[in-house]
Specification:
By secondary structure, the chain is of the alpha+beta class. It contains 24 helices and 22 strands. Strand 13 and strand 14 (346-352) form a beta hairpin.
Length: 663
């Protein structure tokens, strides 16, 4: 392949991975691998400047603004990237260049936080707008509502300054990230790859309650624009921001010589494993604002700052064993156990092997010498195998076809690489099943969170979801042992459980957590069969007559209701007084066969309330506009969905129109 073909191919690959990182928050490769590809591209452009075109990844900031995340806002000050460097020599070249162009320049060295850039605008001391980087030049997304629920974002400054725009990094602590991923797994949802992706996705959430729950954090690292006060240097700006109550980058160092700068970079490297969050390098920037103004910027980066990226640390060690564990979704996960090694200041001895496909790709075997590194300097991962050191008797490893917890057959889930336990009553699944049952979209038992679920299971009070309804019989015992807490906490939970008995059969069917049976499918099933008794005895032919029920789901239902334990749980729920039948009067068909999308802020209904109302009258609610959409129910700030509906000639209705349709 000649250089030009290699160049064009590399541009396409980098643009693809840039989109995965900046716009989809779902990267497929490591930051280091991305950086190395970018270095190759820069080398080709240096050797062949005639190749360079405006669409090259080296000529523009990664990312674009998404309308789905909020209203687009024009940048007053560009939110540029930083030039990345990877060697001591490149740092030295930058320092020498600055010293040649400036008179006795002063530098600041600080952490490069691995998160999502955000600009905050304050007018007269009040937070007025929060904007993502977007395309970095023209516009970003307005995420003010979500920014207001981040604890580190100051809503009011101590001084009512005329105008202040600052730029910072939104990130997640490792502790907060672990909590989010634990809940993702419990709810059967896809896990986030790393804290940066989770923070980016969370900041763009349409529901600020989710943003609040995920506990984002933020450091401020630059003053973009200020009116009403004169500040001459970056460090002076930091001290001013601290007085306003803002959280700035920790432990920044002011330096004058290359030796001081390199020492500060090495100190950050030595201490980064002790931080409670990810950093992906160190930033070296000019301290004086006047000097920055003199140096200016390119179309992509400022000339007065660079980011030094630390090389990933890796070591060889011996694989001692592969342990199997079963997650709360039933997924069997292999974990490598190896001789302890020191990486980034900590001792590690375990790392996930993900799944059988990953094991096969690495061809990793017990007894092998493996290469271990830390992803994001936090999570230990296995990079490869040194096959030159492989023992003669090492054998390929297979997870097998039995659950390591209960011994039931294991199977590979269709369309995935996951191997799962087939036992619906495997102890590993119980916590997830109970959480799903009591959750907001199911039985909606207020206050019945993860802590109570784990405690009641650990103490032997819950063996399946039906046991929830016999807890009231053990009230005194629960109080005596303080299993839930004091009397008020215990009674609040027991009362919420009793109240949930008022839920209809649709909610109960949804709460059972049967694969492929969500609210819409449960509604359709109960509308046809009217009772659990009829549904449990339904034939395959009867099931596939129902909207939303295809071949796979019909077979899942048949197998689920064949299981004696499942039938017993349903019988117990009925005995505890839950509504296992649906009355004809409860079923409305006024919106039968119609598909709605809900967007914007409605006058009296929340989006979930509107969706529930539509579904209660036979309609279906989806999340995105398509040709199959019959109506867009729109309130204020409807955004891009309104535009798409108009393009597709889909009728747009308001809340009053909906009420009239179901009268």
């Amino acid at each position: 392949m000649d250089d030009l073909k290699r160049y064009e191919e590399l541009k396409k690959i980098i643009e693809y991975h840039s989109d995965r990182y900046y716009n989809q928050d779902d990267p497929e490769i490591s930051d280091y691998d991305y950086d190395m590809m970018m270095q190759k591209l820069k080398k080709l452009e240096k050797d062949h400047p005639e190749y360079i075109t405006p669409d090259s990844p080296t000529q523009h900031v990664g990312g674009h603004a998404k309308r789905e995340a909020g209203v687009l806002v024009r940048h007053r000050v560009p939110m540029l990237s930083l030039q990345d460097v990877f060697s001591k020599e490149e740092i030295m070249d930058f320092i020498q260049s600055m010293q040649e162009q400036l008179i006795d320049p002063e530098f600041v060295v600080e952490y490069k936080i691995d998160g999502l850039s955000l600009a905050l605008r304050y007018e007269n001391g009040q937070l007025e707008r929060a904007i993502t980087r977007g395309d970095g030049i023209l516009q970003g997304e307005d995420v003010t509502v979500n920014a207001r629920v981040i604890k580190d974002v100051k809503k009011t400054l101590k001084e009512p300054i005329e105008y202040l725009e600052v730029r910072g990094e939104v990130y997640m602590t490792n502790e907060a990230f672990e909590r989010v991923n634990e809940l993702q797994e419990l709810n059967g949802k896809k896990l986030f790859a790393n804290p940066r992706n989770c923070a980016a996705g969370t900041l763009r959430q349409l529901d600020s309650r989710i943003t609040r729950q995920r506990e984002l954090s933020m450091f401020i690292f630059n003053i973009q624009e200020i009116r009403g006060k004169e500040i001459k240097t970056h460090s002076e700006g930091y001290e001013y921001l601290k007085k306003q109550g803002m959280k700035i980058i920790n432990d920044y160092k002011i330096c004058r010589t290359f030796e001081e700068i390199w020492q500060a970079i090495e100190t950050i490297d030595e201490n980064r494993d002790q931080l409670g969050y990810d950093i992906d390098g160190a930033v070296v920037k000019i301290n004086s604002y006047a000097d920055r103004q003199q140096l200016g910027q390119t179309a992509k980066v400022p000339r007065w700052a660079i980011a030094y990226k630390y090389p990933p640390k890796e070591k060889e060690t011996k694989l001692l064993d592969i342990e199997l564990s079963v997650g709360r979704t039933g997924r069997i996960t292999p974990t490598a156990v190896f001789e302890p090694v020191r990486l980034c200041g900590t001792t590690v001895s375990r790392a996930t092997l993900h799944n059988q496909d990953f094991i096969d790709q690495l061809d990793v075997r017990i007894g092998d010498t493996i290469i271990v590194y830390k992803s994001g300097e936090i999570i230990p991962k296995i990079k490869g195998v040194n096959k030159d050191k492989r023992p003669a008797d090492a054998k390929p490893y297979h997870i097998g076809d039995r659950c390591p917890v209960c011994g039931f057959p294991a199977y590979q889930e269709e369309g995935t690489v996951d191997i799962k336990c087939s036992n619906p009553h495997c102890p590993s699944k119980l916590i997830r099943n109970v959480l799903n049952f009591v959750g907001r979209d199911a039985m909606d038992i207020k206050g019945f969170g993860l802590a109570y679920v784990e405690t009641l299971i650990d103490h032997g009070y819950i063996h399946d979801v039906s046991d929830i309804y016999c807890l009231k019989e053990k009230r005194q015992e629960l109080l005596d042992k303080k299993v839930i807490g004091l009397q008020k906490s215990t009674d609040n939970l027991l009362n919420a459980i009793e109240k949930s008995k008022d839920n209809d059969a649709v909610k109960i069917l949804t709460a059972l957590g049967i694969s492929n049976i969500g609210k819409s499918a449960a509604k359709s099933l109960m509308k046809k069969f009217k009772s659990f008794k009829n549904l449990m005895n339904a034939s395959y032919a009867q099931l596939i007559e129902v909207n939303d029920i295809g071949d796979t789901t019909a077979n899942i239902l048949i197998q689920y209701f064949k299981d004696e334990q499942n039938r017993e749980i349903i019988q117990k729920l009925e005995a505890y007084g839950l509504h296992m039948e649906i009355e004809e009067s409860e079923v409305s068909s006024k919106l039968d066969g119609l598909t709605f999308v809900v967007t914007g802020t409605l006058p009296t209904l929340g989006r979930k309330d509107a969706a529930a109302l539509i579904e209660s009258h036979g309609g279906k609610v989806t999340g995105s506009i398509s040709k199959k959409t019959n109506y867009l129910l729109a309130g204020e700030n409807a955004g891009s969905k309104m535009t798409k509906a108009q393009q597709l000639n889909i009728p747009v209705i308001n809340e009053d129109d909906l009420f009239n349709m179901i009268k």
